[in-house]
Q: What sequence folds into this?
């Protein structure tokens, strides 16, 4: 009986081609996904510290009041459509532009939501939208009714 020949002449061979393929695929994946990522920005917050030199200069101007969203309700009535801006009734469509121009003059851009009743014509709702845009408001939205 012959004994098997135990020798270390056969060295362990490491195949590099599959490992290079995997590294290449990972590289392509990470480059592709990182190119579509939007850069992050620092959002303003009420907890942000005021710079040392700016505290003295800002004492002359009053602080800008923060506004939540502004809601323009358009209510249908028999005698005509009633306009309500944040709970205050208005007489004319031009009053919307005047009030919103006063708000944008303060240096704020709150979102404006136009909320028409079901019976209010689309033309009247678009007039309210146009009045808000003419006042300089960037974000004018229409309210959606839950189904």
A:
């Amino acid at each position: 009986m012959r004994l098997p020949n135990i020798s270390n002449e056969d060295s362990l061979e490491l195949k590099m081609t599959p490992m290079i393929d995997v590294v290449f695929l990972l590289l392509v994946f990470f480059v592709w996904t990182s190119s579509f990522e939007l850069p992050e920005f620092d959002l303003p917050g009420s907890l942000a510290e005021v710079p040392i030199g700016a505290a003295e200069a800002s004492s002359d101007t009053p602080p800008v009041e923060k506004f939540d969203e502004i809601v323009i309700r358009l209510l249908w009535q028999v005698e005509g459509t009633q306009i309500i801006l944040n709970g205050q009734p208005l007489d004319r469509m031009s009053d919307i532009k005047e009030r919103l121009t006063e708000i944008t003059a303060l240096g704020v851009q709150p979102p404006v939501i136009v909320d028409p009743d079901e019976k209010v014509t689309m033309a009247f709702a678009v007039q309210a939208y146009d009045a808000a845009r003419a006042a300089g408001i960037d974000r004018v939205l229409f309210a959606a009714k839950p189904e």
Remarks:
- The domain at 67-142 is CATH 3.30.420.270 (Nucleotidyltransferase; domain 5).
